[in-house]
Write a structure and sequence with these properties.
- The protein is an alpha/beta fold and about 425 residues long.
- Helix content is about 25%, strand content about 25%.
- The chain has 12 helices and 22 strands.
- Strands 5, 15, 16, 17, 18, 19, 20, 21 and 22 form a 9-stranded mixed beta sheet that branches.
- A hairpin with a 3-residue loop joins β15 and β16.
- It is globular.
- Bound molecules: pyridoxal-5'-phosphate.
- Pyridoxal-5'-phosphate binds next to α10.
């Protein structure tokens, strides 16, 4: 291929096929990256992360909301370097464990910009959050109120601002395992318990209830469920803070077209506005995947190709670096980096000892051979986050690319890392 061309919207912004006919991300040739850093590897276009963060923030400003904040759901990509980018871009951070809190603090988020979530927070996690002076703790259950009451009593005069998490009984059209807004979700309180819980929280010394929260689920393509959930909270409660969660869908494959970030922000602002933008109330949203999924791709190397009933192409990663196909039947696409596009239907299989370890069931690849570098786009969310060592596989590095420069921000695990926690 002699001239460069652009690629589908599943790839990071400004990705292209270069003059050598190879896919390029952040100005870096993916074959060269595979040679330099090895595979599997997570490759992230830093400019793409920043552009999406700015799109969310500027949509809020465009809508005229003066107290609108974008809280990155760090579970989507809990990596210090990614968090640092978002801290620099003025985002807040949602954490759901002491580990995520540790990462957020290490990345430079100030405590007041951190929101602590979780349906099973331990007293230790709550203590750490109080010590870090996190801005908000989102209360999920009565036992947590007991823990907070005890911990605050030990910290004479300490005040912690909190939200109460509610399930508004709004369902998005998404996978059951990532649907959280239904009345019987494991998260939060049902709407009909809200007033009793609110009174209880208001009666605890040291807890300052400033608002309510709902997150109805993830990978939701329609704006209507977000609007219904945001409106339900906004109309039922008159608190200074409203947190309407995350969940905006992303394109994992070229045929998917989620709503633009701007439309999502405009809708939730309109749904929560009574008299003019914001009407003095602070509005938080918590996007995870919509900030990171399309900023990242994963590189693999083909280890073997065989034809049985199907045309099997096996690579050097799989469910250890991307668990989503196994967990939710998530669909991705794949390309041979040197020959993008293709029409030969293959099964892109992982290397793990599970028949279900298939990365892409219906991959269209062009003439895949052992040694080829394969890329799966849209793997920036919940891939690194759910990485594991199944079969003793070493977790993959994270490579940031920008303007043709690549830098490793997380190194590949070593065999010594696998035995580092052994106690003999
Ligand atoms: C409370 C909360 N907020 C935000 C998110 C982010 O969801 P998504 O990555 O789909 O935007 C999640 C995901 O699990 C969540 O539980």
């Amino acid at each position: 291929m002699a001239t460069a061309s652009s690629v589908s919207h599943v790839f990071p912004l400004a990705s292209r096929v270069n003059e050598r006919g190879r896919l390029e991300v952040g100005g870096c040739d993916l074959v060269e990256l595979a040679r330099e850093f090895g595979t599997p590897a997570y490759v992230v276009a830093e400019d793409d992360l920043r552009a999406r963060a700015r799109a969310f923030r500027s949509a809020g400003a465009q809508a005229g909301h003066e107290d609108f904040h974008v809280v990155f759901a760090s579970k989507a990509f809990p990596c210090t370097a990614v968090l640092e980018v978002f801290a620099q871009e003025g985002l807040w951070c949602d954490v759901a464990s002491e580990g995520e809190l540790h990462l957020a603090l290490a990345a430079g988020f100030r405590g007041e910009r951190i929101v602590l979530h979780g349906n099973a927070k331990s007293p230790q996690e709550l203590q750490m959050a109080l010590q870090a002076k996190v801005g908000l703790i989102v209360i999920d259950n009565h036992d947590e109120i007991d823990h907070l009451q005890r911990l605050l009593a030990e910290r004479d005069g300490a005040i912690q601002q909190v939200l109460v998490r509610l399930t508004p009984d709004v369902r998005g059209d998404t996978h059951e395992k990532i649907s959280t807004g239904q009345a019987d979700s494991k998260f939060g309180f049902a709407m009909d318990e809200a007033h009793e819980v609110i009174s209880r929280v208001q009666s605890v010394d040291g807890l300052e209830l400033v608002g309510v929260h709902a997150h109805i689920g993830s990978q939701i393509f329609q704006l209507d469920p977000f609007v219904r959930s945001a409106r339900a909270l906004s109309e039922a409660f008159d608190f200074p803070v409203l947190d309407v969660g995350g969940g905006l869908a992303v394109a994992y494959t070229t045929d998917q077209h989620p709503p633009p970030i701007e439309d999502f922000v405009t809708c939730v602002i309109a749904a929560t506005t009574r008299h003019g933008a914001g009407s003095g109330r602070r509005l938080l949203i918590e996007p995870g995947r919509a900030l990171v999924a399309n900023a990242g791709v994963t590189l693999y190397t083909v280890q073997s190709v065989k034809r049985k009933v199907s045309h099997w192409v096996a690579v050097d990663g799989g469910m250890s670096d991307n668990l989503r196909p196994m967990l939710y039947g998530s669909v991705y696409e794949a390309h041979v980096v040197e020959r993008p596009g293709g029409s030969s239907e293959c099964v892109l299989a992982g290397k793990h000892c599970e028949s279900g370890d298939v990365i892409v069931r219906h991959a269209l690849l062009q003439d895949p051979k052992a040694g080829d570098v394969i890329v799966t786009p849209a793997t920036g969310a919940y891939g690194y986050a759910m990485a594991n060592n199944y079969n003793g596989v070493l977790r993959a590095p994270v490579i940031f690319c920008r303007d043709g420069q690549a830098r490793e921000v997380v190194r590949r695990e070593t065999l010594d890392d696998l035995t580092a926690r052994d106690v003999r």
